[in-house]
Amino acid sequence: MRLNRTVTTFALVTITVLCVVTMAFAGTIRGSSGNGEDSGAPHWLLLGRSQNVALAHNGKTATMRWEIVCINQDVEDSQASPVLTLSGSCDSGSYLIVFQLQSSATDLNVVIDHLVGFNQTNVNNFGVMICDSPNNTIELCTHATASQIPNITTTTTSHSVTFVVPNTFPVYPPGSAQQGRGLTFFVITQQKSQLPIGMPTFGIH
Length: 205
Hints:
Elements: H1 2-23, E1 28-31, H2 41-44, E2 45-47, E3 53-57, E4 60-70, E5 94-102, E6 106-113, E7 126-130, E8 153-156, E9 161-168, E10 183-190, E11 201-204
Parallel strand pairs: 1-7
Antiparallel strand pairs: 2-4, 3-4, 4-5, 5-10, 6-9, 6-11, 7-10, 8-9
């Protein structure tokens, strides 16, 4: 009986540890395959990747690039009967903002602010984007598996998300030229109207 109790206790401890590890990242790890495939890019890729932007604060630095995806694959201009006055928008007003960073800083806080139509209570609305399919090679994403993402913690408000990356900022191998290289975050917003698009701000500290 003592052995059974020991095994049971060990199993409970193991389950508890696994739960802690799983819950450490208060957000979602999303695969780029969920946003569309290369062949359907005109329907989901609203605004292609930007040039690298330099971020700096209190001695910490990072480079960032970003893009905008229509999460419902409804780029207005790709619709069968597009509304010309809504050209350049997502028909549903649902926007997926993807941003990718590289840094050598430690304990880096990544802040995306001034979000419009952001539901902070839904953890599916923010997290990390990984490259999970050979059918999507043209979206920014992290070339890693879910288990290779650090235990990021998050703080949210009705208009912002702060991702806290512990220890030394991770380095990942490059993907395709379009997938880029680095740790890739995403935030989903649902705007009341398609235009104008509420553009967020990015920062580190």
